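chain below, 227 aa
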Amino acid sequence: MDDVSEPDPHQLARPPSWGPSDSFNSLLPVLAFLGLNSLFGLGWAIAGTTATSLYAAWSRRSRGLDIGWFIPVIALVLIARATAGIITDSEDVYFGIGIGLKFATVAALVGSVVIRRNAVGFLAPYVIAFETSTVTHRIYRSTTSVLTLIWAVFLTVTAVFDIWLLANSSANGYVLIRFLVSWPLSTVTFATAIVWASRRLAQIPGFPGLLSLLEAQVEAQRPEPAG
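prediction:
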């Protein structure tokens, strides 16, 4: 009779790959668009923004965030969007595609909850060092389902704001104002969600605490002191 061993509940569900550099990578496309659009025009701004976004995606993959088809699909979408924007030389086309992608993402997020394979539950172990015993627990699944719906609501609100802003500002104004509004809004939303999720996940037996995992991961990402 074959000896079938039970999976180790303390094994990491997936190797997390998030790091502080992601925050800087999110700023690069904004800086690239503002600078290139002011100096050379919309086409160069779109090309520069797309290049920095592709670099950010590549850097995540090089650090282990390889979610199968996810990164290549994102790259293809970015290239297709940039091509449409450059060919038409239209900020409405370029930014409009981005807004449309937000609504498509909302549909995908809600759909993932409906089929009981919520997106946050799948992606979270790539960001936080969750053990197998955590991600298989019912409280984890229910918590991440709610977080997925919160993500969908956040994207819906920002997409509606984007539509209004696009109709009432220049290209540079759209990029800058959207960043300045979305950054604090996303920070508050994320922080609130983390606090709520931490309290929920604390009910899982043996769970060390969400904030403790985040702190340990930030410490692990810091470079070793020289010497």
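The mean pLDDT is 82. DSSP finds nine helices and no strands in the chain.
thats it, cya
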